[in-house]
Amino acid sequence: MKSDNQPGYIILLLSCLSSVQGSLRVDDVTCGSVVKLMNTAYKSRLHSHDVKYGSGSGQQSVTGVEDQDDVNSHWSLMGASGKHCDRGEPLPCGTKLRLQHLTTKKFLHSHHFSSPLSRNQEVSAFGTKGEGDSGDNWELVCSGDDWRRGDTVMLRHVDTGAYLAMSGHSFGRPISGQMEVVGITSPDTTAKWKVQEGVYIKPASDHHHNDGHDEL
After folding, report:
1. Nearest-CA neighbor of 166 among 154, 158, 174?
2. pTM across the whole model
3. CA distance 16 to 128
4. In this predicted model, what pLDDT tens digit does every residue of 61-80 receive, in sequence order?
């Protein structure tokens, strides 16, 4: 039997489908994704490697590199210390998170040591066997609800209040040409970052998780 209200029913159905698709945005940056972060002022990607600072904390150094193909620029997005976030869960603006260096398994970290070149706040990579401390926690500073791939964001260090930035200074040997990454107290254009290449875990549905991913 044909319904007299068929056009209205179709419009309602399309509206519902549009609402569902809108809640599953594939361009969300999500927990469990592995990304490269590019500083928008210097066009360099956040980087680390098994090279320790010769001053300050003596912990593993964090730098910026222009090479977009360097495997040591991959960071895994995780929940804050003692917190869990599900793979594929969108990361809301204001959330606290950790960034784990994919190669060495150390966490992006900061503290009240002075950075080696500019005497700002040192940023290092820290932790043993996937465990660190509260100095690994960063707050996502962005506009809107969730972190989207095209967004320019800032990362504020929870313990000290400093913002992840680049100083514009470059190191000599053994990491010649790599740029100093620091924490600054008053954020400016050097504290702005965008996600670039990576493996993005697709957002989960309301009832079950999608383990698919997009590679860029």
Report:
1. 154
2. 0.85
3. 48
4. 999 999 999 999 999 999 99
